[in-house]
Amino acid sequence: MMKKLKTFLLLNIIVVLAMGMTVSAAGSGKLVLTADKTELQPGDTVTITLNVTENPGIITLDGVSVKYDADVFSVIAKTPDPDVEGSEEGLLLPDIATRPVTDDQNDAGTVKYSLGKDTARSNYTKTGAVATLVLNVKDSAMNGTTDVTVSLTSSLDKDEEFVTFSMSPVALTITGGKCVHELSKVSAVAATCEKEGNKEYYKCSICGKLFSDAAGTTETTGDAVAIKAIGHAWDNGTVTKAATCTEKGVKTYTCTHDSSHTMTEDIAATGHNWDEGKVTTEPGCETKGVKTYTCTNDSSHTKTEAISATGHSWDEGKVTTEPGCETKGVKTYTCKNDSSHTQTEDIPATGHSWDPGKVTTEPGCETKGVKTYTCTHDSSHTMTEDIAATGHSWDEGVVTKTATATEDGIITYTCTKDSSHTKAETFKEKTREPEVNTVTSFSDSTVTTKLINALVSNKEYTEKDIAYYDIEMKVSLDNGKTYVPVTAETMPKEGVKVRIPYPSGTNPVDYDFVVLHLLSNGTVETLEPEEASEYLIITAKSFSPFAVGYKEGEEDEPDDGDDNASTATTAASSNSTGTANDGTIRSPKTGDMISAAMWILIACACATILLGTAYGYKNKR
User: Fold this and answer.
1) Strand partners, 98
2) In a 3-state reduction of DSSP, which class is residue 234?
3) pLDDT, tens digit, 9 for 90 and up, residues 290-334
4) Within 13 A of 459's CA, how many CA atoms are on the CB side?
5) Please, which of 181, 381, 461, 613 could form a disulfide with 375 given CB 3.0 to 4.6 Å?
């Protein structure tokens, strides 16, 4: 059957070639050779793989040949192995076998395969690797590139139609091996100013090596045969463009090796060389002048600079308008350089010169007077000045209505200058007695400290002998119906009399007292109290806090027995009365009503004791 197919195909090919026509194939495929590496040296191995990369559908591939250069390679392995009887491997399916041809059927450098099964009933379209071939590079291999190729005798599909396949070889390069040099001569080239030259040498077109001789026995290198560029040798140069005041010039240099090589360099501009200049416009008093400078290198080049105005030169000036008392005058100045230029300046008004003045309207108690002044420069100019009203001069006043608990009193005053002028003032009933509370100290320790410091500043008193008082003053604003605490506004001008109880354990006979008052500005005032039988009396014009300092009093030396007795009797008498000199009602400290006779007896006893005391002795309780 296979022979019939081959005969049929061969006849068809001959007919087609004879007719000059292309056989219509059922499809086309590819047989591709690949290598695991393409750069090789003697002794290396390379694996060549046969691949079907495109398969339009076949049943057999016949006469597949892989060819290599037998002078370069030797086969060391095949898959499948044709020397092993029955060795077959599936091409793409197990029932399509790759049948290698044994070596005795192969030409040198060729490995043949027969692929497929011509009895198949359906086409196979799978793709993939078909076979592998391992080649070894012989030691005698020459350098160069060699191809491993693939070819095909025929291929059929199930309908016995011819299927075309394209073939892709693989190129392998041998390096490090032997080379049969093919030398070509490279002529010597002289070096120039800018380009390198070279000596004569030979180059192999196969391996690329360089040789200094035509026989290829002496190898050389590119650096060894290269001749460096000789570089330029410039002359002294020629000025090809002269420099000007404002523009650069050019100097050109020529190479002595090659006159076609030139280079240029700039010549700096010379710059201007200005003369001393000339005044081309004279300056005026108020206008600038012009000075022009000309370049000595090129007279067409000029520059100008401004000359400052000379300014005015004023004369001493003349009064052109006299000043008055109230009007300014004018002084005019003329420029000495140009009489058309003038300027003026104000002359201050002279001002008035007033006489001592005369009273033209006398002032009254309540009405202002007038004093008139006349200017000595111009009598038409006058001015007036108010004379303050003299004000009233009130007498001591007369109570024209007495105050009661429910009604204000009235005091009427008459002006001593003009009896027709009177005024009335109301007054209220006496302010309510202050409420005096004894306290141990004040809640603000700073207050207590200030009072103590003020007390002990007098060395006769100590800080242990002090008593503190909180005093509240009240006043009636509704004619005695109710009383409210006194404020700074309702505090009477004369102040309020305050009766302060004697500190516990003291009395007006044996002790001396001082009253301390802390003011709102933080200072402490010291008051000398009046000593009544039961109270210390002060006049307060501001509010708490108060404190009383006390010490034992010093007794005077008695002159004789009679005087001492008299003094004691008088003291006892003055302290036993019910009413103080200031009218304050007193009561005995014990609260008992002691008769005057008892007080006399006590005074006599005291006098007797004093007579027995040594002269000059002072006793403090």
Assistant:
1) 89, 115
2) strand
3) 999 999 988 889 999 999 998 999 999 999 998 988 889 999 999
4) 0
5) 381
Q: How many CB atoms lie within 10 A of CB 41?
A: 13
Strands 39-40 and 170-174: parallel
Amino acid (one-letter) located at 39: E
Residues contacting 139, CB < 8 A, separation 6+? 42, 43
- Is the whole model's pTM more than 0.85, yes or no? no
Measured at the CA of 297, the angle between CA 293 and CA 302, to 5 degrees, comes to: 25
Query: Residue 477 has which token pair?
Result: 């604003």
Is 21 a residue whose pLDDT tops 60? no
Q: Is 218 exposed, middle or buried (0-12, 13-18, 19+ CB in 10 A)?
A: exposed
Predicted confidence at residue 37, as pLDDT, reads: 94
**Tokens 């070639």 belong to which residue?**
17
Which among 503, 526, 501 has a CA at the least distance from the CA of 516?
A: 526
DSSP 286: S
- Residues 531 and 528: their CA atoms lie apart, in Å, by 9
Q: Where are the alpha helices (DSSP H) in 71-156?
A: none
Rounded distance, CA 142 to CA 182, Å?
A: 13
Amino acid, res. 57: G
> Which of the 8 DSSP states describes residue 83?
T
Q: How confident is the model over 466-488, as pLDDT tens digits?
A: 999 999 888 777 655 678 888 88
Tell me the residue length of the chain.
Answer: 621
Do the Cβ atoms of 399 and 409 come closer than 8 Å?
yes
CB-CB contact of 395 with 383 (8 Å) = no
What confidence score (pLDDT) does residue 73 get? Answer: 92
Q: Please give the average per-residue pLDDT across 38-43, as a whole number.
A: 92
Question: From its phi and psi, is residue 86 left (phi > 0), alpha (psi between -120 and 50) or beta?
Answer: left
* Four-residue CA torsion sign, 123, 124, 127, 132: negative
Domains and their CATH numbers in the chain: 25-174 (2.60.40.680), 183-227 (no CATH), 238-267 (no CATH), 278-305 (no CATH), 358-387 (no CATH), 398-427 (no CATH), 435-552 (no CATH), 561-611 (no CATH)
Kindly compute the dihedral angle of the four CA atoms of residues 568, 570, 573, 578, in this order, to the nearest 10 degrees. -130
Query: pLDDT tens for residues 444-464?
Result: 889 999 999 989 887 788 889
Please determine, for residue 338, whether its predicted confidence score (pLDDT) is greater than 60.
yes
